[in-house]
Structures are given as C-alpha cells and as structure tokens.
Amino acid sequence: MNVSVRPLAARASSTGALKDIWRHDPFVVRVRNLVDLTLPDLQSLHAVMETATVKRRDLVLDGYEFSKLCFVKEGFAARYKLLRNGKRQIVNFVLPGDVVGMPGSFLDRAANSVIAISDMTLQICSLEAFVGLCYRRPKFGLVLSWLAAQEAANYAEHIIGVGRRTPVERLAHLLLEMHSRLAVVGLADEFAFNLPFTQEMMSDALGLSVPHLNRMLTQLRVEGLIAINGRRVEIVDRKTIELLAQFQPIRSARIPLPEDNGSDNADRLAVEAVEKGDQ
Questions:
Q1: pTM (2 d.p.)
Q2: CA 139 to CA 214: how far, in whole Å?
Q3: 166-245 in CATH: which number?
Q4: How many CB atoms are located within 10 Å of the residue 154 CB?
Q5: What residue spans of the chain are helical by DSSP H?
Q6: What would the pLDDT profile of 179-200 be if each residue is shown by its tens digit?
Q7: Which fold has domain 1-164?
C-alpha cells in the first residue's frame, strides 16, 4: 500500500486538537453513538495512529496477510471478491467512519480485497497496537465488537437483496443504505446525498448488468421516488421507496455502562467542558 504518512499523535496533543477530533473525525462520531469518549480515551486512541493519504489502488489483497486497522477519515473504497472467470462481486462499500482491515486483519489471510475508489485519508494503526489499546482501555474492544455486529447485519441484508429482492428493490435498498450510513457521519442531507460510486461498481454490488441497472434507475426516477443530478441523489418519496425496498435502517444499540463508572463520567464532563468553551 503506497501511502504518505505523518504522525497523528503530535497533532492531538493539545486540548484544541482533541476538540477538533471530537467534532470532525467520522470514526469518533460513530463511536460516540455507541459510548461516551473521555479525554484519556481520545488521547490513547490517537497515540497509536498515523495519518496516511492513499491514491486509488488496492489496499488489501485477497489471500494475503493484512495486519492493520485503517480508520477512514476521507474517501471511499469497496470490498470485493474476484472470481477465476473474471467476474467481480462487490461485498460492500467502505465509507468515512468505516474500518479497512475488519475482518481481514483478524484472519490468517484476507478473505477479500479492498480497493480505494477515490483518494483517501486513513488513520492507521497496527493490529498489535490496537490490541494493546484494548487491553489498556477495554472500551475500544467493545466498540469493535459492536461495529462488527453492525457489519454482519449489513452483510445479511446484502445476501437477502441478491437472493430474494427484485432488481429495482435491490437498487432502492442500496440507495437508502448509502444515505443512512453517510447521514450518521454528517455527510448527507436529510433527503439527499452525493453517490461516490460508478454504475459499474453498483452493478457489481447488486449482481446486475450496467444496462439493467440503468433501467432500474430510470424506473425509480419515472415513478417519482428519486431525482438524480450528476452524482447527487435526492430521495423524493421516502415513504414509498422504503416500502418498495422493505428498508429498515440498521442502528446499533448503545454499549451498556458498567455500574461503577464515576471516573469515566468525570472525564466525559471534561470533554463536554472543552466543547462548550469554544462556543
């Protein structure tokens, strides 16, 4: 993986930098939907990371060892499997706030490939460093478990889609899923978002040919369910398209708090005080 790396810990050393991480880092935004983060949590997390910029290329190769966790700050990628006959199945799309290396880093060899489909900014740490962090701060081990459960639920929906949904239902579900996931990290409006993937990629994710995918997009537009302007997708009739796709957003439950979390509460209040001080 050809990357340009710069240390992240130095930029996170000041209170002001930590405050910016709290607000703008998409992975931290996702984590805070699951559990409160304290100042020591943020310091510990970013101490094990380095920031890297990545051009469009394979990040993970199917069948090869990969032992890093790459937290996506900016850009997009796709997990895929290339079959011997040359056909490609995209397993899912990787968005800001997602983790490259899960599940590949937890296997002896990666089970699929991951390709950057845009320039990306990643926050990278070795698997060994992240495991060490989890021993020191078990909260992050819980977070990864919760995110893995969410991934499993998304994979189940993709299997149902390819196996049982009609082509137009598959497409509608994919568009709603992308909007829902981007909205979680603040990258979508209430009813619209920018679709970062080509029609070829979408067809490989849905098991359709590109001409078939085009017909399904046209059908959704003609029926007044969506509007498309370039890469901008607007959900015009949300209720109807959700019924068509049988779509339910996958939202993780929050991680239960331990009975005695007094010190965490004090640190959480410190983070909140930092945020209020800048308002």
A1: 0.86
A2: 45
A3: 1.10.10.10
A4: 16
A5: 15-24, 26-32, 39-47, 127-136, 139-164, 167-184, 199-206, 210-222, 238-245, 262-277
A6: 999 999 999 999 999 999 999 9
A7: Jelly Rolls (2.60.120)
